[in-house]
């Protein structure tokens, strides 16, 4: 591995760099598509697969015909949002029985997980499995991953993965992201590489008022003026910065490495581009014209829960993760049947096609302790092979819904979680590994269809930048270079700072290490080739 050798790679010395090309091919698991269940909407242009037909619970398929677990105990530390259920509950018991492994959960508060993670990885007492979300991979965490966690290559590389068919069906892109320090260390949660930030709007209100969905930056501005009536407590939108970045074709901010791209033979960072400044300036104008709900002035882009005021009609457009499409629709389905949330297609700022940039194809990883015995590693892989089962299987149903009668009941053929289900069946087993990106909402199939078709349309305009899919560890001396930019963007947008301040910050960034970091990334490209497609 020339790059890792050049960086003093392997398991000692400097840990920066990446592994791709021929070196990665030796490490990656063979891909064997699952044929257990056929989706209604196959993946297209990088989209998730979709299921829109009624779920046949009596005809659920089996994707794990025999227990692979050997009865051992495995401890898993994972982030948890909400109140963790008590150990030994009916969901955990049923899952452990199906897998043949006694999984003991060490759930930690997802909001302060990075602190807990740092402390545990710095100690000698590391659980058998540790889940690390991509957004927590800052500071010393990436080098700790390389020094503390096992190489899964002997169990999963090449044809070895075929012992775990559901893991073999995980897309190769997601496995590529699971290579840390030259070894396959992570079990991934795959995701679509298409931007997950959707500009949502109140379709019911648009239809009633005769508003046209905009198709350019100017049309959006004109519509925002038409909608806004401060006296009537109605504004057009929340902070639309994320959509502006997409509309102006700004490189992805999903991860630092995705913010670099080869342009006319030179590596350029997103913050150095004209598009970046134009997107911030356009968003600033929306605020300056008072077309943005006052709440958004107070905080950052994602500071408040948008639901109540969106439902009340205080604003009609906002941008957030695609999961909110279903979340909002499901929350209103019974008491507010007229309510309709829908996703706008992203347009190019000039009214032409947009240029969208791929985000990472996996964002959350589970790692196995380096000190784990082979039997523990195999038990963890047995867990992952069940949790990565595709939609429409018994294993998926148990992992995501729990036990019928206890955790969910059937209403008109649709599984609906009980109160117990909402307590027990939360973000646990899905964190160990997941199937290829899937969208299915048995209670609201039209939302699943809308989501997948939106991804398919946006996928047609999505490009992969030079470092797409590579798991890159930047040298520690550069890790904090970009830290102040998000706050600066938000300050400019809200009129507290000026565009000139961004230009000055970019200049400072270059002299404080940005130019040296560019040279470092250039060497990566020279040694590994580009991932762009």
TrEMBL record:
From which domain of life does this come? Bacteria
Which GO cellular component terms, listed alphabetically, does the Swiss-Prot or TrEMBL entry include? cell envelope
Q: Where in the cell is it found?
A: Cell envelope
Stored Pfam families: SBP_bac_8
Q: Which UniProt keywords apply?
A: Lipoprotein, Signal, Transport
Region Disordered, as annotated, extends over 1-21
Cited SUPFAM superfamilies: Periplasmic binding protein-like II
Under the heading InterPro entries, the entry gives:
Bact_solute-bd_prot1, SBP
* Family statement drawn from the similarity comment of this UniProt entry: Belongs to the bacterial solute-binding protein 1 family.
Q: What is this protein's record name?
A: Lipoprotein
Q: Which species expresses this protein natively?
A: Streptomyces phaeofaciens
């Amino acid at each position: 591995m020339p790059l890792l050798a050049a960086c003093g790679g392997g398991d000692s010395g400097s840990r920066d760099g990446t592994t791709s090309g021929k070196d990665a091919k030796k490490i990656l698991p063979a891909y064997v598509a699952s044929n257990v269940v056929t989706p209604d909407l196959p993946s297209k242009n990088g989209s998730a697969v979709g299921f829109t037909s009624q779920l046949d619970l009596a005809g659920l398929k089996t994707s794990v015909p025999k227990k692979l677990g050997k009865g051992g105990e495995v401890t898993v530390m994972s982030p948890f949002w909400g109140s963790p259920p008590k150990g030994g509950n009916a969901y955990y018991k049923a899952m452990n029985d199906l897998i043949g492994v006694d999984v003991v959960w060490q759930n930690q508060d997802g909001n302060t997980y990075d602190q807990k993670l740092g402390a545990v990885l710095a100690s000698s007492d590391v659980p058998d499995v540790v889940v690390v979300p991509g957004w927590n991979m800052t500071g010393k965490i990436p080098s700790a991953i390389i020094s503390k966690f096992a190489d899964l290559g002997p169990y999963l590389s090449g044809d070895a993965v075929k012992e775990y068919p559901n893991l073999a069906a995980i897309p190769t892109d997601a496995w590529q992201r699971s290579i840390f320090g030259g070894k396959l260390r992570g079990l991934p949660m795959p995701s679509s590489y298409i931007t997950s930030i959707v500009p949502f709007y109140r379709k019911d209100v648009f239809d009633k008022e005769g508003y046209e969905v905009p198709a350019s930056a100017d049309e959006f501005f004109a519509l925002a003026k038409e909608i806004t009536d401060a006296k009537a407590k109605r504004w057009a939108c929340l902070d639309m910065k994320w959509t502006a970045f997409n509309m102006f074709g700004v490189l992805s901010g999903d991860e630092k490495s995705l913010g670099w791209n080869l342009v006319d033979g030179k590596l350029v960072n997103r913050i150095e581009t004209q598009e970046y400044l134009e997107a911030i300036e356009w968003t600033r104008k929306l605020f300056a014209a008072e077309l943005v709900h006052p709440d958004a002035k107070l905080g950052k882009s994602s500071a408040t829960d948008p639901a109540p005021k969106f439902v009340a009609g205080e604003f009609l457009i906002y941008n957030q993760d695609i999961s909110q499409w279903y979340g909002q629709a499901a929350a209103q389905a019974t008491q507010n049947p007229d309510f309709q949330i829908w996703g706008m297609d992203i347009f190019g700022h000039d009214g032409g096609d947009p240029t969208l940039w791929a985000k990472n194809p996996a964002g959350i990883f589970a790692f196995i302790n380096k000190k784990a015995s082979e039997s523990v590693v195999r038990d963890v892989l047995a867990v992952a092979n069940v949790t990565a089962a595709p939609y429409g299987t018994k294993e998926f149903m148990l992992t995501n819904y729990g036990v019928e009668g206890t955790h969910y009941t059937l209403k008109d053929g649709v599984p609906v979680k009980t109160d117990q289900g909402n307590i027990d069946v939360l973000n646990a087993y899905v964190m160990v590994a997941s199937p290829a990106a899937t969208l299915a909402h048995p209670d609201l199939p039209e939302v699943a269809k809308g989501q997948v078709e939106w991804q398919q349309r946006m996928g047609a305009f999505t490009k992969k930048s030079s470092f797409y899919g590579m798991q890159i560890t930047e040298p520690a001396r550069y890790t904090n270079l970009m830290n102040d930019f998000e706050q600066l963007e938000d300050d400019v947008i809200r009129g507290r700072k000026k565009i000139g301040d961004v230009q000055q910050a970019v200049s400072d960034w270059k002299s404080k290490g940005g130019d040296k970091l560019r040279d470092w990334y250039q060497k990566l490209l020279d040694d590994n080739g580009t991932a762009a497609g």
